[in-house]
Amino acid sequence: MQLHSQAATEIINVTASCLQVQNAPVGILYEDETWRTSLESFHPAWLLVYRLVAFGVMLALLIANLIVYGANSLFFYT
Question: What is the pTM of this model?
Answer without folding.
Answer: 0.49
